[in-house]
Amino acid sequence: MIDNRNEMYKESIRLWGKDAQLLMVIEEAAELIQAILHYWRRAKDSNVLEEAVDMEIMLEQLKIIFDFSKGGWNGMKEYKLKKLRERLDKI
Fold it and tell me: pTM above 0.90?
């Protein structure tokens, strides 16, 4: 078993391929949306935690597939967080 998460993500991409993993990103996003909708309707079977974790795992693979590790991800995240801070400060 691979101990390093990043290597495990890379192995998943190598094994199943980029296209299959991109489809999994879409599937996991849909499952998270469905879980949130169930929660919103106060359904007892809402599994937001499980689906959020699945989505996070697929986002990590997305970073590898599109090579966002060269600063693009963190740079964009900082930009978006700055915009959020500015919006919050206006309230």
Answer: no
The neighbour count for residue 75, using CB atoms within 10 Å, is: 11
Angstrom distance (rounded) from CA 36 to CA 90: 28
Smallest CA-to-CA distance from 46 within 58, 33, 27, 28 is with 33
Q: How many domains does the chain have?
A: 1
Q: Which domain holds residue 84?
A: 5-89
pLDDT tens digits, residue range 21-78?
999 999 999 999 999 999 988 877 789 999 999 999 999 999 999 998 777 888 999 9
Can you tell me which residue has the tokens 């740079």?
A: 75
